[in-house]
Amino acid sequence: MDSINFIKGYGKVQDLEFQHQSPNPNTNTQKKPPVTAASILAILFLSLTLGAMFGVLVHKSVSDPPDLPSSSSNSAEHDTDSVIKAVCNVTRYPDSCFSSITSLSSQNLTDPEAIFKLSLRVSIAELSNFKNTMISNSNQGAAFSDCQSQIEDAVSRLNDSVVAMEVGPGGGKVLTETKIGDLQTWISAAMTDQETCLDGLEETGSTALDEVKTKMKKSQEYTSNCLAILANIHTLLRSFNMPLH
Asked: What is d(CA 126, CA 70) in angstroms, rounded to the nearest whole number?
C-alpha cells in the first residue's frame, strides 16, 4: 500500500513539474522594446522643426508683392535706379517713365514723393516743347488754334500741381490727402486737354493730325505716368516705410 501511495504521490509531483515547465499559450514570449521619454521628445522636436520650416516657406511666398521693395526695408538701403524702377512699375509706360526721370535727375532719389514731383517736371518740359512747336505752325486753322489753347491749359494745370507741392519756410507736408485730391483733378484735366486737342483735329479732318499725334505721344505718356504714380503713392510710400510727408 505504501508503494502504491508513493507511486501515486510521484505522479502528482511529475504533474506539478510538467505544469510548472509548460509555457502559457496566452503569454507572448517576445518582449517589445520600451518607448522611452527621449524617443517621444525627439519625435516632437522633429515635428515642430518641420512645421516651422514649412511656415517660413509659405509666409515668404506670399508676403511681398512683385516689383516692390519689401515693407521691412528702409529706403536708404536702395539705390536711386531701383527706387525709380519700383515707382515707374506702377505706370502703363514704365520704360519711358524710368528713362525720362533718370535723364533729368542728377541727385540721389529714394523718396517716391520726390520722384513723383520730378515726373511732373518731365511732363511739363515735354508739353512746353510741344507747345512751342505748335506756335511755329499756328496757321493750320481753327482746330489747330484750339488745340494750342488746350495744350497751354494742360501746361498750366501741371505747373499748378508742382506749385501745390512746394513747402514754404513755415513747414508743412509736400503731400496731404487734400493735395492729392487736387493734383488728381489737375493732372486728369491735363490729360483730357491733350485728348481733346487730338479729337478736334480728327473731327475737322486737319492735315496736321498725324504730326501732332506723333509729337504728342511722349507728353501723353508722361502725363499718364504722373497720374499713375499719384494714384499709387500710398502703396509706394508704405513699401519704403514712409508716411505722407
From this structure: 33
Distances (CA, A) of 29 to 18, 73, 146: 18, 66, 107
pLDDT of residue 17: 41
Element (H, E) at 42: helix 37-63
Contact 123, 226 (CB under 8 A): yes
CA-to-CA distance for 98 and 22, rounded, in angstroms?
94
The DSSP letter of residue 93 is: -
C-alpha cell at 212: 501732332
For residues 95 and 114, give the distance between their C-alpha atoms in angstroms, rounded to a whole number: 18
Higher pLDDT residue, 197 or 6? 197
Residue with cell 504714380: 229
* Better-predicted residue by pLDDT, 230 or 207: 230
Query: Which pLDDT belongs to residue 20?
Result: 44
